[in-house]
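User: Predict the structure for this protein chain, please.
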Amino acid sequence: MRIALDAKRMLNNSTGLGNHARILANALMRDYPDNEYQLYTPRIEEPYLHELHGSFSLEMPATKLAQTVHPWWRSYSISTDLLKNRVDVYHGLSNELPLNIHRSGIPSVVTIHDLIFLKHREQYPWLDRQIYTLKTKYAARHATKIIAVSEETKHDLMQYYYVPEKKIEVIYQSIDPRFYDATTTEAMDAMRKQHNLSEKYILNVSSFFPRKNQLRLIEAFDLIKDKIPHHLVLAGAAGNMMPTIKAAIRNKELQDRIRILTTVSNDEMPLLYRNADLFVYPALMEGFGMPVLEGLVSGVPVIASARGAIAEAAGPGSLMIDPLSVADIAAKMMTALSDPALRDKMIRLGHEHASKMTDTMFARRVMALYKSIVKSSG
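Assistant: Here is the predicted structure, written as structure tokens:
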């Protein structure tokens, strides 16, 4: 098969949707090398290109005009290139498809991560909501098949866009294979020293936006800080909540107990998890919650929000919290840190749950979907 992948995020985004796209592309190329993979992107950031491993071709705007107005190329002109390249199936990896793909006759798959912009409108500027709505609604209507990354996203698609259930396939994401690599105590100690971390710490990994809920996590940590030796580490990319979060840390005089890390490399991230005594993810909403799965694979007890897709990612071994309750977050952290038998059980059940979401299984289900729609369209 000639498989075309929307590679804009894959080749330009460091986290989130970029990681999702790279993990899938690498797993497909590794496990199904007999196919031809075409990656369509308006531009390339070199570091992300080097994270792809396998045989593929890059497809980019051919003219200076298309390069200049690349949103038009991605939304319309790309379909001409897909036809010229005799693509068997096109996969939009981040909630959208070319806005004329229904006229091309090319079978298409779209991965829809969430509809948070509809469920929580207050989190998004008006113009962003209009753009997201246009693209996602079109993709949901015209895709041959939809991949939802969680049961919650599937339910939302049926509720908000009236998508027939038979059109949606729930396929859970996987995480970077680096999280499965063996490591050494020396490597973990070196990472900790590199970032000036305490020997004992509680970890949170996410971007710094309101829905990630770090402010309540800081308040919860403040309630228990005198009962534990741990520091709190907040790691992730910058976001618009960063000034507010830093101010909260100063106001509570927690500068010596809370570390913010924004420069952890992809190679260091698994070590950051494995060094932690506890991973806490109190986000208010997510399409899935990949950091939760990273915590489970890393052998760290996980505390996560008892909400929708986050609970799906966390599985039965995690402690679930009300993310709006500072007291509940604090109490669950104390429970997980003080009960060795419970911690062992959480780690064991976490591994069992995460074993169902490897990149091999991820690629297998996606490839089966490609084959089925190509066969039915032929």
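The chain has two domains: 2-174+358-377, 177-354.
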